[in-house]
Amino acid sequence: MEFPFGDGMSIVLPPIPYTIAIIVIIFLLVCWAKKLETEKIRILFYFIISTYVLPIYTSSSEEGYFQLFIPIGFIFILLHLKTSRKYHLSKLKASILGFSIAVYQMVLPYI
Hints:
Strand 3 (about 55-60) and strand 4 form a beta hairpin. The chain starts with a strand and ends with a helix. The chain is flat, with a radius of gyration of 18 Å. The protein has one domain (about 1-110). By secondary structure, it is α+β, with helices and mostly antiparallel strands. It has helices at about 15-35, 40-50, 70-85, 90-105; strands at about 1-5, 10, 55-60, 65-70. The relative contact order is 0.15. A two-stranded antiparallel sheet has the order 1-2. The protein has a two-stranded antiparallel ribbon with strand order 3-4. Helix 2 packs across helix 3 (about 70-85).
């Protein structure tokens, strides 16, 4: 979506479904952060780290290109939450939300 202004200037926004998804994600993260007493910014860190995916296998042929991804950020966060004494359900929710973004990143090249 593009909003043109005078003299060739314009603001380009992402498509409506992406914009709505971003608004919902921010709303959920803010609601979960309010449930923590201290260190509310950590919810954002748990979310961002759990979205990281890493290719573990790459293959190319005449027919195309294939990469096998693993959500290493989510696995790291789960291990951290399991061993941590400061476990909170909001942190787990934020990491699961990040895992859903990681799954989207893994599936996107094949759509």
